[in-house]
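lol ok so funny story. i was supposed to be doing the assay writeup but got distracted and ended up predicting the structure for this chain instead. priorities right. anyway since i did it might as well share w the group, maybe its usefull for someone
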Amino acid sequence: MIKLKINNKTIEVEEGMTILEAAKTKGILIPNLCYLHNVHECGSCRICVVEVEGNKNLQASCITKAQDGMVIHTHSEEVRKTRKILYELMISDHNKDCLSCSRNQSCELQELSELLGIDQQRYEGKRSKDVVESSNPSVERDMSKCILCRRCVTMCNEIQGVGVINSQNRGFDTLVGPTEGFDMMDMNCTFCGQCTTVCPVGALKEKDSIKDVWKAIEDPSKRVVVQTAPAVRAALGEEFGYPAGTLVTGKMAGALRELGFDDVFDTNFAADLTIIEEGNELLKRLNAALGGKKATLPMITSCSPGWIKYIEHTFPNELDHLSTCKSPHMMLGAITKSFYAKKIGVDPKDFYVVSVMPCTAKKYEITREEMAKDVDAVLTTRELAKMIKDAGIDFCNLEDSTFDNPLGLSSGAADIFGTTGGVMEAALRTVYEVVTGEELPFDGLHVEPIMGFDGIKAAEITITHTVPEWSILKGVTLKIAVASGLSNAQKLVKEIHEGTSPYHFIEIMCCPNGCISGGGQPRPTTDEIRLKRMEAIYREDDEKTLRKSHENPFITKLYEEFLGEPLGHKSHELLHTSYVKRGKFNELL
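and the output, tada:
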């Protein structure tokens, strides 16, 4: 521990802390902008400067280590004057169309203006950048609003390990984006949208789909169906003032009806369907491998479109390891336009399917040729909140509603798809019971080794006994792994590429900690908020009577009435897909 003085108060903090962190532990606010805890600490904006006695210059508190005996002033006249000048210089090179900006009233630059007491803009001059990129279906980049904080650069390069965007050029000509003026669509961008979650302004945001959805709702010739992902219900409430981790499942369903959607379905239904198909695919591969036949193991989950695009670019020769299952929302889109359309006598062409997702990569996913236009539009959690507000719906006072059947009932196993490790646990609940005839032998059905926020988690389950038809698996120790965040995914796939992977089954989620931290979720997404969202997801699971995918009666009926059997001809036609070798710069296309 060390002792120092901040604003004439002696405090004691752990050695190694920055001045900013030390001040925060004692409730002392130091204004900052580019800093983002556990993500970005580089001192580029200098808004967090403080006066340290004995130092000639002001110090950036986010990168300056607190030292024993330091005497610090956080709001002296020089500090306050300097911060205002820095802010005014920054805003002089910023597109000030605040009223029409998507971040209006949720912009960190706006909030900083109020905090610093900015009441004039003294500097005007040439603008350095006005590049706008909207060529891809997921993320829009408007450099006229960029403040060069470089948070997105750190997220893309160090957290996700993709490296699509960087600081290009120098000085006044500095621009954040892909190299050589390329668009993100031309590069190995996965469209995960993590850059949009850390951008403090409106320079990076999801591609707007709200206008298209309103147009469909207002078209009397369209039957507009909406579905919602599991992570959305644990985060949407934050946009309406609810504490993080508040489940708003019922109010969300009610709001969707108020907006005018004809059918309100749950992506969780298709998550249960995914487990049936994916579980059988895993068993088929294991059976073949143990029987001496050719089978590609480990099998890797395929429900994260950002992860799929990443492996297509970075490890194109390992695509056979992917499950061929479509992601749950694409499955539900396919079932809606086939089974449900036939059931209610509506031409599939008259359907317009909207998915509400925590993810920006889903916007890209629906444009893939392999997906056969199963889904017509994707809204992020943030976009749905905007629509609810635009419609004047009093979300907080809505009566709870429910999803429509037959595509609205789901198990608790489907709920946990929203967090890292959830897809694996859901699959194990079904696969283990199919093979042994007994429930998964973990307390509360939760596989604790793969729960939580570690980047890579692993577990082993030894199958000591089986039902007769799966005797080939008796004595097998099933080795599993879970990774979230693409930098962690890379480590597991490198093992596969090098032939050293010990696993049979791997779950990979593109976003750190899974869909609860998706690129389309409410901002901010801190560790504390992630934890509360994860707890909400598991709480939703724990409170359900139906907790295993194979016990969903509507899934059983779907196979009896329409699909026939898992991995059958109809299932392959509607629920499975293929992948594309791309190469890092799309050179394999």
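The first strand starts at residue 2 and ends at 6. The CA atoms of residues 333 and 374 lie 5 Å apart.
back to the writeup now i swear
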